[in-house]
Design brief:
The protein is mostly helical and 564 residues long. The chain has a single domain (16-183, 241-270, 291-483, 518-557), classed as MFS general substrate transporter like domains (Growth Hormone, Chain: A). It is 65% helix and 4% strand. It has helices spanning 2-5, 21-32, 42-45, 61-89, 91-115, 118-138, 141-147, 152-181, 220-224, 244-263, 283-289, 298-301, 305-326, 328-335, 344-372, 374-401, 405-437, 442-449, 451-482, 485-492, 499-504, 510-516, 530-548, and strands at residues 187-189, 197-199, 202-206, 212-218, 233-236. Strands 1-5-4-3-2 form a five-stranded antiparallel β-sheet. Helix 16 runs antiparallel to helix 17. The longest helix is centred in the C-terminal third of the chain and has 33 residues, at 405-437. The chain is elongated, with a radius of gyration of 25 Å.
Length: 564
């Protein structure tokens, strides 16, 4: 088996059609790219017990988002550690191991969901799946750059385009699976017809035999955002099924089989191969576009300032985009909750469109960088990105005071452009590395640079959820202070002095407080992400400076004529 996977077995003959290689690369990236549709799992994973809404024992959004972060961390770590191994064993071996890790990670996570053991989700999707992500991500990059020395940006854009497009396919597939595997919980009736008891912030109802059973109360506004029809009222906790465990099992098997098939289609060019009629760029073009004809060893690259400048460029560009990606569906629903057009299906379609523009940006911007040059391309990303991120708080603030579809259109357009540049940044960085450090060890250097993605996988979601949580708690506190004390007690079974406990047990929510708020109270929900967007603008500004200062690598770092 190992002999079949060996690098020596996949050297292509002289007449091999190089355009076959991107097919295998895109197939693997389509599978691992489903990680970008993680936000579709947020609602069901936070409602496993309550099903229609979160019960007291259900996981919080911040706990679920961290699983996504761990996967991205291990993506970068696996890519960094596997860089030199990839150059030794070849892409087929690496692709095979990636298939085992990514598919197996879903199956381990499914066990964690069924047993409600969160650590198994961290181990499965986060650690094991993250390693599969990293190995699957780097396996085709250096191979494609060697097959397409005449079109480096386009070649890496083709492969990494699949990573952006993976979420597009996954969104449709996940929605279909979740909907078909969903089972509604037991409905007890409207809230006014069910006697509710409060114990330590948790709602219960007494059954016919005198036992207390936990219940959740579904508000009308929350019911409108569910993927299936449900009546507002009281539901019995522990009944029904959100369908997320079955979805994980199905996806794990599908991804393993597709990635295994793709890994066996990898081929590498023979030493000295070059496209027919191709000549390396002349000295003037190389100088203008900062393209080096020399090579830098993997370890030597870490001693150059250029590596760390590119690390900052990638890290902060990804931090800004991935923070929004991790909560995309939730953010759309919260900012535009007052618009009737923003249904559960609309929010899910938003995630799908993110994938479309993310994918399109990868091939469009990467191909454009062949003409513009890599540094100029990233300058466009950061200048335009700062303007677009700064526009989101303005749009959200307008939604609070004057809800109109116009603000939804502005938000949609801004975020779609942002995600073309987010995807374009990923697709352009391998070619940027090849320009700066040469092509000989670009796969290994790229793997180590992806530790920036690991850091961004922590920074983006953590900043987004932490800042959102602070904004939410402030909004809840302010709304509670405006509510009539007796109305508050009647609605939640306890006084405002127990607000912290009621919020912790998910009994008090923003939507529930708005139903008892005085007339004319402004909904604070659209503004939950304003601070986050300002912070992202600052990070993009730092990345802009780092990119602007990029210069060619000093000659002392170049390899000698014998590779020394």
């Amino acid at each position: 088996m190992l002999n079949v996977l060996a690098k020596e077995r996949i050297i292509a003959p002289p007449d091999y059609n190089r355009w076959k290689v991107p097919v295998a690369s895109v197939s693997i990236h389509l599978c691992i790219g489903s990680v970008y549709a993680w936000s579709l799992f947020n609602p069901p994973l936070t409602q496993i017990h309550g099903v229609v809404t979160s019960a007291a024992a259900d996981w919080k959004l911040s706990e679920v988002v961290w699983i996504f972060s761990v996967a991205i961390v291990f993506l970068g770590l696996a890519a960094a550690l596997a860089g030199r191994w990839l150059e030794t064993v070849g892409p087929r071996m690496v692709g095979f191991v990636a298939a085992c890790c990514w598919g197996g990670g879903f199956l381990v996570s499914a066990v964690g969901i069924l047993t409600h053991e969160r650590w198994l989700l961290y181990l499965g999707y986060g650690v094991l799946g993250g390693c599969g992500l990293g190995l699957g991500y780097v396996s085709p990059v250096s191979t494609l750059i060697r097959w397409f020395p005449d079109r480096r940006g386009m070649a890496t854009g083709l492969a990494i385009m699949g990573f952006g497009g993976g979420a597009m396919i996954a969104t449709v597939l996940k929605q279909w699976l979740l909907k078909n595997l969903y089972e509604a919980p037991t409905y007890l009736g409207p809230e006014t017809q069910v006697e509710l008891l409060l114990r330590e912030g948790i709602r219960y109802t007494e059954t016919a035999d005198g036992t207390l059973q936990e219940v959740v109360v579904l508000t009308a506004s929350a019911a409108a955002r569910l993927p299936v029809a449900a009546d507002p009222g009281v539901y019995l906790v522990g009944t029904g099924n959100v369908g997320v465990a079955g979805t994980f099992i199905t996806l794990g098997l599908i991804y393993f089989l597709v990635m295994l098939w793709a890994a066996f289609f990898y081929r590498i060019p023979a030493p000295g191969w070059a496209p027919r009629g191709w000549k390396p760029p002349d000295e003037e073009t190389s100088r203008r576009k900062m393209i080096s004809h020399e090579h830098v060893d993997i370890d030597q690259a870490l001693k150059t300032p250029q590596f760390y400048q590119l690390w900052i460029v990638l890290c902060f560009n990804v931090t800004a985009g991935i923070g929004v990606l991790s909560v995309a569906k939730t953010m759309m629903s919260e900012i535009f909750s007052t618009l009737s057009v923003v249904t559960e299906g609309f929010a899910a379609t938003y995630v799908l469109m993110i994938s479309v523009f993310n994918m399109a940006g990868r091939i469009i911007w990467a191909s454009a960088s062949d003409k513009l040059g890599r540094r100029n391309t990233y300058t466009v990303f950061f200048v335009l990105g700062i303007l677009l991120y700064a526009s989101i708080p303005i749009t959200a603030s307008q939604m609070s005071v004057d809800p109109r579809v116009l603000w939804l259109v502005c938000f949609y357009a801004a975020t779609m452009i942002i995600f073309t540049m987010y995807g374009g940044g990923f697709a352009t960085i391998p070619a940027y590395l090849a320009d700066i450090f040469g092509t000989r060890f670009v796969g290994g250097i790229h793997g180590r640079l992806l530790t920036a993605w690991s850091m961004a996988g922590i920074l983006g979601p953590v900043l987004t959820t932490w800042l959102r949580e602070n904004s939410k708690l402030e909004a809840i506190s302010e709304l509670a202070s405006k509510a009539d004390p007796e109305t508050f007690r009647a609605a939640f079974g306890a006084g405002r002095e127990q607000l912290a406990l009621l919020v912790e047990k998910k009994t008090v929510t923003l939507s529930a407080l708005l139903e008892i708020a005085p007339p004319g109270t402004v909904d604070p929900t659209p503004n939950l992400y304003n601070t986050t967007m300002i912070v992202m603008c600052v990070l993009l500004g730092i990345a802009l400076i780092s990119n602007w200062r990029m210069r060619p690598v000093h000659t002392r770092h170049h390899m000698g004529p014998q590779g020394s």
